[in-house]
Amino acid sequence: MRFSKSLIALALSTTLAACGGSDSSDDNVSNPPPGDDNSGSSTTVYTEGVITGFGSVYVNGQRYRSENANIATGNNPAATEGDLKVGMVVSLAASSSNNGEDPEATDIRYEEHLQGPVSFIDREAGIIEVLGQQVVFNDLTEFDETDADTLAVGDIIEVSGYIDDNGDFYATRIELENDETEMKLKGTVSALDTTAQTFMLNELTIDYSSAEFDDMTADDLEDGLYVKVEGEAFDAETQTLVATEIENKDREFDDIDDADEVKIAGIVSGYDETAGTFEVNRYTFTVTDDTEFEDGPASRLTNGVRVKVEAEYDGEQLNAKEVEFIAKEARQKTEGQVTAVDADAQTFVVNDITFVVDEDTSYLDTSGQGARQFNFDGIAVNDWLKVLAVVNDDGEYLALKIKRAEEDDREGEVKGIASDVTVDGMTVAGISVAFADNTEFEGDDEELTVEEFVALFSAETDIEVEVEGDYDGDVLVAREVEIEADDEDDEDEDDDNGADKRGKAEFEGSVESIDGDSVIVNGHELRFTSNSELEIDGESATLEEFFAALEVGSIIEIEGVWREQTYIEVQEAEL
Description:
Blueprint: H1 7-18, E1 43-54, E2 57-59, E3 62-64, E4 70-73, E5 76-79, E6 89-96, E7 104-110, E8 114-122, E9 127-130, E10 133-136, E11 142-144, E12 156-163, E13 169-176, E14 183-188, E15 190-193, E16 198-201, E17 204-207, E18 212-214, E19 226-235, E20 240-248, E21 261-272, E22 277-280, E23 283-294, E24 306-313, E25 318-326, E26 332-342, E27 347-350, E28 353-356, E29 362-365, E30 384-391, E31 397-405, E32 413-419, E33 425-428, E34 431-434, E35 440-442, E36 447-448, H2 450-455, E37 464-472, E38 475-483, H3 487-493, E39 504-515, E40 518-521, E41 524-527, E42 533-536, E43 539-541, H4 543-549, E44 555-563, E45 567-574
Parallel strand pairs: 1-21, 4-7, 10-13, 11-13, 17-20, 18-20, 23-25, 28-31, 29-31, 34-38, 35-38, 41-45, 42-45
Antiparallel strand pairs: 1-2, 1-6, 2-3, 4-5, 6-7, 8-9, 8-12, 8-14, 8-39, 9-10, 12-13, 14-19, 15-16, 16-17, 19-20, 21-22, 21-24, 22-23, 24-25, 26-27, 26-30, 27-28, 30-31, 32-33, 32-37, 33-34, 35-36, 37-38, 39-40, 39-44, 40-41, 42-43, 44-45
C-alpha cells in the first residue's frame, strides 16, 4: 500500500494549530464559535479524487473549505485556489471539528499524470497516445484550450486522470500546453537495464544516464517501483525519453493509521474475489462483511468500474467501509435552455427532460457570466446548459456534468435513445432532429440509407444514437447519425489496444509503413478506393497524387469505416 507524501501528518499539525481558534473565513462560510461542537474533537481525512466545482473546493462530492489550505500544483509549491481547475485529480488532507461544518482542507496537491506531444489520436474510439502511453477520453473528459476535434498530432498536452484496469490513463482533464517543452509522466518501472541505464514505462524507454534523483538514488531503481520522470529530449522514432529528473513516488503509508477517514476515487483493477481485495489508484482495499455498496450491488464490483471508496486503516490493511459506483460514461447528451428549477428536489428541466443532480455532478461555467463558483444553486431559468447524463436505478436522468454556455455556443451534438423515428427525422434527448438529403447514417459496421435506418426501429425501439449537425432554430439538422454500440458488444470486440474495430473510424497519426496500396498507421491497416476523397495540405488530390506524396513518417488524418474488423476502408484522408 502506498501513500502520496505525508499529507496526514500535515493535516494533524494544522489541526493542532487550529485548536486555538481562527478568524479566517470563506465565501458564504463562517467558522463556528469555539466550543460549538461541545467536544473539541476533530477528524482527519485524506482523499484523492477529481475536482468537480468551486466555492471552496469540491472533491469526491465533498465540499472542503480551502481558505487556509497549502496548495501546490506541479512544480509550484505556492499555488493558489485560482490555479486549480475542474477535472484535476488532486490529493487533499483535511480536518473536521465534527460539528456539521464542511471539513477544512489543510493541504491540496495537484500533479499532472502525463505531459508530452500527441503521437496518435483515434477520435472515434476516444484514444490518444502520448510518450508511448495510451490515454482514454470520453464526453466527461474536460478539455482546456483544445477539444477532441481540434487536437492534432504534435500538440503538447497535460493529462490528469486515473490509471485504468489496463494500466492506461483515463483522462478526467486534458489541457493544451504548446508553450511547454518539458515532458513528464508517472509509471511503474519495468525492464530495468543497469548496464545501458535504461528502463521502460509501458511502451516508453527511459534513458536515466544523466538524470538527477529525488528522494532516491540510481541504486534504488528496481522493477515495480513507481516513479515520476521529467525530461526534454524525446526521440519519437525510438520512443526514448532522456530523463533529467526521476522522483520516487512509491512512499509507504507512514501515517495512514493517524487518518480517521481515507477516501479514494478511481478505477478498479486487480480485483480478487476470493481474497476480497481490489486496487484503486494503486491502493489495495479489502472488502469485509461490514462493507456497504451504494448505487449498485456487490456483484458489480469488478475490474474497470469507476468507484469512490471510503476506508479505514486497521494497522495492516485498508478496510473498505463503503464502495460507491460512479458512471464512467454519459449515455445522454443534450443542450438547451432551462425552463424550470426545483431547489428542494435538486432538479432542473431542459428540453422537457427533468434532470436530478447529486454530490458527484461536475459544474463549469463557460458563458459570459464566467462564474468560477458555479454549482446547482447558480442554475437559473433561461440559462443555456449542456448536460451529460445517465438514467439511474430509480429511472431518473442523473446529470453527470453540467456546463453553462451561450446559445451561440451550442455544439450541435446530442446523444440518447431515438424516438418518433421517420424518414424525415426523430427526437433525441428532447431535441427535434431533421434529416436532410446529405445526412449520413452509420450502422454497426456499414453505411445505411435513411429507409434502412428507419426500418431498424420497427423491431427494436430502444436504440441509442449520436447525432452531429447544425441548428435551424430549435431543430437540429443532422449531418451524421451513428448508432451507438451495445456495452457488451464493446467489450467483446475490443482489440488489444482498446480500440473498437467496428463502425466508423476517425484518427490522426504517423505512417509506419507502405506496402503497395496498404498503408499502416499505428498498427491499423488503411485501404483506399476510387471513392476515397483525398487532400494534400487542404488541396484535392487524386489517388495517384496522394500515394506519390505519401511516405513513412507522414502525418495523415483519416475518416473511414472498419471492414471485417480487419482493415479500414478510407472515405476521407488528408496528408
